[in-house]
Backbone:
């Protein structure tokens, strides 16, 4: 089997990491992979061991010419199936090219934001299957008119091994300038509006007076950094909230957090939530999108309504005040990630969709065959 994958993102964030997990797992199962990505995409270096990388110009939703570039690629590569992993024009124009070439096509949908019904009705007919990374996303697509016959859920996965390593807490405190008695809340997300940093800053104003030992590490980069830093300063939170930027060494530090906060407005599933839980960190997050599938409320963390700052404050206070509860939830969180979010399960789920599509097109394939 030969699969041509298209990933439109420039940065090596959660979605791109999932693609690399998939490429590696498929290669191990005897599948030949070709990856189409932008010339400056960070995924290229990470994927090179598992796929032949074809750098291609990708210019977004208005780039209709991508259809022609993609069509030339498909005629040259002659894959059995096309797997589109992102939006930004890659989905629609890529699917049209696959249709013109007569090649089956599937789309991975990683976000739960809604589209205009008439756009959804037209676009999703182009795909043989749409793979949602959570049931929450699948339900959104169904409500937009995509038939259940066309929808499949294959949850995102985590290679938990790096997150299981013991953490050097002394090195952690030194790295981030923390005192020995600091109780540390972390938030790991792009600095964009839908990740809900503003809710956390509002909650911290109520929590700070009674928790002078509390410190908050804001991991990530994005267009809202200056605005969020200014908001923290105006609220008197500057001494306890540290904006530490994007870190590619999170596996060293995640397990030293006491709590992970994730008060997002929208979230497909939330890879940072799986990473934190694999590292044994309890989560306080919003009950939205695929988050309830990632975090078991009351067992591995606490879920609160979107935008409900008082509820967020109560949930964080409860964990700040109860070290034993943090430890108990953290242990349960690690076990649940290991049992339900393995890379093998994700790879097998995608491969089963490929086989289903090819059989429906009269191009059967034995998914158990390996080389």
Residues:
């Amino acid at each position: 089997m030969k699969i041509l994958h298209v990933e439109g993102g420039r940065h090596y964030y959660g979605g791109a990491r999932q693609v690399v997990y998939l490429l590696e797992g498929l290669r191990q199962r005897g599948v030949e992979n070709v990856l189409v990505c932008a010339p400056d995409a960070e995924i290229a270096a990470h994927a090179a061991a598992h796929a032949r990388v074809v750098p291609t110009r990708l210019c977004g939703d208005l780039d209709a010419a991508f259809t022609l570039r993609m069509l030339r690629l498909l005629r040259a590569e002659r894959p059995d199936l096309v797997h589109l992993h992102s939006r930004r024009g890659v989905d629609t124009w890529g699917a049209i090219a696959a249709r013109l070439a007569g090649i089956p096509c599937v789309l991975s949908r990683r976000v739960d934001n809604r589209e205009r019904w008439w756009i959804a009705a037209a676009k999703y007919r182009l795909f043989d299957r749409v793979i949602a990374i959570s049931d929450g996303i699948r339900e959104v697509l169904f409500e937009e008119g995509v038939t259940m016959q066309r929808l499949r859920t294959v949850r995102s996965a985590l290679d938990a091994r790096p997150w299981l390593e013991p953490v050097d807490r002394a090195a952690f405190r030194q790295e981030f300038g923390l005192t020995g008695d600091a109780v540390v809340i972390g938030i790991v997300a792009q600095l964009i509006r839908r990740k809900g940093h503003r809710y956390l800053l509002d909650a911290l104003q109520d929590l700070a007076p009674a928790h002078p030992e509390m410190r908050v590490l804001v991991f990530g980069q994005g267009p809202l950094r200056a605005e969020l830093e200014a908001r923290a300063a105006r609220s008197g939170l500057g001494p306890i909230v540290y904006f530490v930027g994007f870190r590619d060494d999170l596996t060293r530090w995640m397990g030293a957090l006491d709590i992970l906060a994730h008060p997002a407005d929208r979230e497909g599933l939330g890879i940072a939530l799986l990473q934190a839980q694999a590292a044994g960190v309890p989560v306080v997050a919003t009950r939205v999108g695929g988050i309830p599938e990632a975090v078991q409320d009351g067992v591995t963390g606490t879920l609160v309504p979107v935008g409900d700052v008082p509820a967020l404050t109560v949930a964080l206070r409860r964990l700040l005040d109860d070290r034993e509860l943090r430890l108990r939830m953290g242990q349960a969180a690690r076990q649940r990630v290991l049992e339900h979010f393995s890379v093998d399960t994700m790879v097998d789920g995608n491969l089963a969709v490929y086989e289903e599509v090819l059989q429906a097109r009269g191009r059967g394939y034995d998914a158990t065959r390996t080389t």
Q: What stands out?
A: The CA atoms of residues 262 and 285 lie 5 Å apart.
